[in-house]
Design goal:
Mean pLDDT: 96
Number of strands: 0
Radius of gyration: 13 Å
Helix content: over 70%
Order of helices and strands: HHH
Largest sheet: none
Low-confidence stretches: none
Number of helices: 3
CATH class: Mainly Alpha
């Protein structure tokens, strides 16, 4: 990593991919305990993505989603 900016960009990208993977796994299972676990992990990834995007914003960088659909990304970022 060259900078805090690079680290935050990589982290945000990682969370986007994690969100996509977790949503896929959540859709693929009917086992309630596993669904609960995936939902918790998904909530954490969404929270992390919001945090990284906010930190980038504080550095004057507007993060654009690379993997998530823009509308899903915006919904995640606007949630509290």
């Amino acid at each position: 990593m060259q900078s805090d900016q690079d680290a935050l960009l990589v982290a945000a990208t990682f969370e986007e991919i994690s969100i996509m993977d977790l949503e896929k796994e959540l859709d693929a299972t009917q086992t309630e305990d596993i669904r609960t676990m995936y939902q918790g992990l998904l909530a954490g990834s969404r929270k992390h993505l919001r945090s990284y995007v906010a930190d980038l914003h504080d550095l004057g960088i507007e993060y654009a989603p690379r993997y998530l659909d823009k509308s899903e990304f915006e919904e995640i970022i606007k949630a509290n």
